[in-house]
Specification:
Largest sheet: 8 strands, mixed
Shape: globular
Number of domains: 5
Strand content: 15-25%
CATH superfamily of the largest domain: UvrC, RNAse H endonuclease domain
Radius of gyration: 30 Å
Low-confidence stretches: 95-99, 262-266
Number of strands: 19
């Protein structure tokens, strides 16, 4: 059953939100925002004569769509921006300079904090508000707050005794923070506290003052001042509108919501996961679960948390739920051990996280039927890809396959490493990923060649699996190697030499001249993947993932080696001092130019150690 576009068009809500158009592979090819999803998304499926050339080209490739409902158009605008940067869709215009919406920051590190518009978030002691989709309103808001509270506007922090105040000081636009009669920092802090409360949405006091000033100006027929106050009130409404798609300083959060459904054959459940990364809502995933009749949402969520996050390489610090679950403490402990740091399950009762949870709950209510259709279409694609892979590997029909893919990464034969990634069916299984440092080298200490390195990795992996080594005992159904016939032959020799029975089929993932996935090699035959779009998409995803995993590991190994060779050879510099120096200076080059006096000031360093470092880099 494919995705029914016409049926899902009927279900679109007349509410603001973001929509994602996808092609037949399930790839996002366009992201857009709408004041009314119902009206906007329908336009893409109108008669071709009524569409412009770009939209006609896009519409031909739309196989399905999904959407996320927001409360306001401003929220939709910000979420659209985030998703475009995440997916880089083919039919969107992507900004190369990667600019984003501005924030308003209060510079608490200054003696007299200022209001500054910025597009960069930094750990500089400032407090950030936003982002704001309406830049004009933000500029007017900064003007309003500076005028209303007589805040400091200039960036200078130190003033000589004979300093003359600038024009702002002469006309009373600020309280002459450059002069001796400047307000005390304590008094100024109270003003900043009120400004902060206003920016958090608690703007009743300032709004009341503005309305009073507007009415007084209107009564005296000072219509220019009244109009300015009116515009500032409107700007305040726009700027202080809660942006639930962004949570500053909230880090990485997942929101997990369960839904029961009686549609289709038997009873089943659905869990939707909303991802907040670096404080930004970046999207969602929908997962289907087989659940017993009568199982509660709490039970579904508890089972999902244990199964889903067991396979994830990145577990967030906080997972938001809509209600408390049994065994929450045990699940938190389980996730904490898996993540190797603290993980918290939370049910927010107020604030930004409660508002974001409410947004997610509203989205699920609006998109329930759509989610079912998307899951069905995804399952059809996955089954087609799995069946095509079975045929390519010469395997009979059956359940989900365990696929293991291998790649080698090095720099001119140095710091050579191997990587193994695992897919169960068409899904990544992060907990099963493995990394290998290549041990087989020539007389110069470099790895011999990719074939030998691939054979070493496969030998070590399969040997441990055949010996019943925990973590390796489950053998793959299919081995995929990044390379052509030579790599396939090298891998098959290891499978044969170890006497694996039945033999594990080996497939080579070959690329074209543009370094894109081209085909699958089996023996002397190459399967042209352009004739099989589902398998092409799966193979490309596997090849990209194993390459990423291998390169990331290689960079880490090489980076540690460079750092170690420079610092660990210096007498008196151990692990703690090495970390302290790198934390202070950020890299070897900065340490190289530092004086002994400067190095002595680093925590954990004494004069002798500092002089040893300085002398080392003077050689």
């Amino acid at each position: 059953m494919s995705f029914d576009i016409q049926e899902n068009l009927k279900r679109l809500p007349a509410k603001p939100g973001v929509y994602l158009h996808k092609n037949s592979f399930g790839d996002v090819i366009y992201v857009g925002k709408a004041v009314s999803l119902k009206s906007r998304v329908r336009q893409y499926f109108a008669t071709p004569e009524s569409l412009d050339a770009k939209t006609q080209a896009l519409s031909k490739h739309i196989a399905e769509f999904e959407y996320i409902v927001t409360d306001t158009e401003a929220e939709a605008l910000i979420l659209e921006n985030t998703l475009i940067k995440k997916y880089m869709p083919r039919y969107n215009i992507n900004l190369i300079d990667d600019k984003t919406y501005p924030y308003l920051k209060i510079t608490y590190a200054d003696p007299y904090p200022r209001l500054v518009k910025t597009r960069v978030l930094a750990n500089d002691g400032s407090k950030y508000f936003g982002p704001y989709a309406d830049v004009g309103s933000l500029n007017r808001m900064i003007e309003l707050l500076n005028d209303s509270y007589h805040l400091k506007r200039c960036s200078r922090r130190d003033f000589p005794k004979d300093w003359r105040p600038c024009l702002n000081g002469f006309i009373g636009a600020c309280d002459r923070y450059c002069a001796e009669d400047a307000p005390s920092p304590k008094e100024y802090a109270e003003r900043i506290k009120e400004v902060s409360e206003f920016l958090k949405g608690r703007d009743k006091q300032l709004s009341a003052t503005l309305k009073k000033r507007m009415n007084e100006a209107a009564e005296t027929m000072d219509y220019e001042t009244a109009a300015k106050c009116r515009d500032l009130i409107e700007a305040a409404k726009i700027v202080t509108e809660r942006q639930k798609v962004e949570l500053l300083s909230s880090g990485n959060i997942d929101i997990c919501l369960a839904t029961r459904s009686d549609a289709g054959e038997g009873r089943h459940a659905r869990v939707t996961v909303f991802f907040v990364r670096d404080g930004r809502l970046t999207g969602r995933e929908i997962h289907h679960l087989d659940a017993e009749e009568g199982a509660s949402k709490k039970e579904i969520i508890a089972a999902f948390l244990k199964q889903f996050y067991a396979n994830q390489t990145m577990i967030p610090k906080e997972i938001i739920l809509e209600e408390k679950i049994e065994d929450a403490a045990a699940i938190e402990k389980y996730l904490t051990e898996a993540a190797e740091r603290g993980v918290k399950l939370a049910v927010p009762e107020r604030g930004d996280k409660k508002a974001l949870l409410a947004l997610a709950q509203k989205d699920i209510q609006e998109t329930g039927a759509l989610a079912e259709d998307l899951l069905t279409a995804k399952k059809v694609r996955e089954e087609a890809a799995a069946e095509a892979l079975r045929r390519a590997a010469g395997l009979p029909a059956g359940g989900p396959l365990r696929l293991e893919a291998y790649d080698i990464s090095h720099t001119g034969g140095e710091d050579s490493v191997g990587a193994m990634v695992v897919f169960r069916g068409t899904e990544k299984s992060g907990k099963d990923y493995r990394r290998f440092k290549i041990r087989t080298t020539d007389d110069s200490g470099k790895s011999k060649d990719d074939y030998a390195s691939m054979q070493e990795v496969l030998y070590r992996r399969l040997k441990r699996g055949l010996a019943g080594d925990k973590g390796f005992e489950e053998l793959p159904d299919v081995i995929l190697v990044d390379g052509g016939k030579g790599h396939v032959t090298a891998a098959e020799q290891i499978v044969s030499a170890l006497g694996v029975d039945p033999p594990i089929p080996v497939l080579g993932m070959v690329k074209d001249e543009k370094h894109r996935t081209r085909g699958l090699v089996s023996g002397d035959t190459e399967l042209d993947l352009t004739q099989n779009p589902e398998l092409f998409h799966l193979t490309g995803a596997i090849q990209e993932e194993v390459h990423r995993f291998a390169v990331d590991y290689h960079r880490g190994v090489r980076g540690k080696k460079v750092t170690k060779s420079e610092l660990d050879e210096i007498p008196g510099i151990g692990e703690k001092r090495r970390r302290a120096l790198l934390l202070k200076y950020g890299g070897i080059e900065a340490i190289r130019t530092a004086t002994a006096e400067e190095l002595t000031a680093v925590p954990g360093m004494n004069r002798a150690a500092a002089e040893a470092v300085a002398a080392w880099f003077l050689k």
